[in-house]
Amino acid sequence: DSGVTQTPKHLITATGQRVTLRCSPRSGDLSVYWYQQSLDQGLQFLIHYYNGEERAKGNILERFSAQQFPDLHSELNLSSLELGDSALYFCASSVGNGGWYEQFFGPGTRLTVL
Amino acid sequence: GNSVTQMEGPVTLSEEAFLTINCTYTATGYPSLFWYVQYPGEGLQLLLKATKADDKGSNKGFEATYRKETTSFHLEKGSVQVSDSAVYFCALSDRAGNNRKLIWGLGTSLAVNP
What we know:
The complex is a heterodimer. Chain A has strands at 5-7, 10-13, 19-24, 31-38, 42-50, 53-57, 64-68, 74-78, 87-94, 104-105, 109-113. By secondary structure, chain A is an all-beta fold. In chain A, strands 2, 4, 5, 6, 9, 10 and 11 form a seven-stranded mixed beta sheet that branches. In chain B, 0% of the residues lie in helices and 49% in strands. The N and C termini of chain B lie far apart (41 Å). Chain B is built from no helices and twelve strands. In chain B, a hairpin with a 2-residue loop joins strand 7 and strand 8. The mean pLDDT of chain B is 92.
């Protein structure tokens, strides 16, 4: 158990819909990272927040947005969903602001868009 | 820019065989190097790391040596077990640049047969 929690575990929805994925980092960790993992694209870094502020963006679509709240939990919002958005979405946390800190991954949310 | 190149999988071995997964990198500064592992149905977890040239990271029988002269960080294990079946990701992080995120390889799938 990494100490990172993600909800829900599974999500099934239809094209055009909007969903919110939630992540609670390990106690004491200030950084939250979001990743998308699919069979055809592999592991894609989406976005990084540190202590409530956005610090880095990766291959995140404009239809996707995220935020980190004062209690340090984070939400990833996916809107106007398409079939190609079906994937595993991972959240990871680390204590510091930089890729050299060990990242602890949650169990993931499996999103299926029908 | 910084990048990581891993050997393509899948790699299939018999139990007790020797494992090498190649990883080479391109970086402008002095990166830290990592191997993360993803077991079936789980999130990624840090396997080992090295922070400077000639450092050897080791964990669970796996080893990797930071070779600056060949810009490599190959993962090795002398005798693999069925339980080592997983996807292995090489990654780097450069403290020197403004880009503080982790740069990921595409992952190498390993299947170990009994």
